[in-house]
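User: I'm preparing a small set of examples for a lab meeting where we compare how different chains pack in three dimensions. I only have the primary sequence for this one, and I'd like the structure in token form so I can line it up with the others. Please keep the answer compact; I'll paste it straight into my notes.
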Amino acid sequence: MKTVQLGLAEYGGTFEAMKAFNDARKEDTEDELWVVEHPPVFTQGLAGKPEHLLLHSDIPVVQIDRGGQITYHGPGQLVVYTMIDFKRRKTSVRNIVSALENSIIATLAEYGIDAAADPKRPGVYVEGRKIASLGLRIKNGSVYHGLALNIDMDLTPFTHINPCGYAGMEMTQMADFLKPCPPLAEVAEQLAAHLRQKLEPPAAEVV
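Assistant: Understood. Below is the structure token output for the 207-residue chain.
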């Protein structure tokens, strides 16, 4: 599984690239982690309801094909797209989600932040506030989309929505707990290492 650094990239072009990569996959295509930041954008999942956008602004809203409701991406947020072969792993969606959540939790623990998953709702939380969001799409036996971890960003646009469909959901970020906050590139390296480890299929599942 290799890591691809995309830097700061517009959401729309990255979304099209994800779909193209997935459609072109072959049985021996290597899995990839795409590390990226996006300019400000709201993304609305397949089940997204328009009423979860509370305030219209100049931030674009993009309809996409992952699960879930509306969320926000912006500079200072680490986004990792998990371009992995689901069928080859012979695992479950729940296991993939748990691997993503546990990778984020392990990364935050390295910085002394005590985070946890919530069995009732996807994502990772610190003191009841959401610090990371997840959203996946499985098509043709493969996974794309992934996770977003708030590092050091302007959280204001989250107040313009019901994040992930939850009214009143409070958001947080690493910068709220760490002074100085570590650079995004450093956190990305740590998180990618945990993802590679936790997304590797157990030996018994290797085809």
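A couple of notes for your slides: Strands lie at 2-8, 32-37, 41-44, 61-63, 70-73, 77-85, 116-118, 121-126, 129-139, 142-150. The chain has four helices and ten strands.

User: Perfect, thanks.
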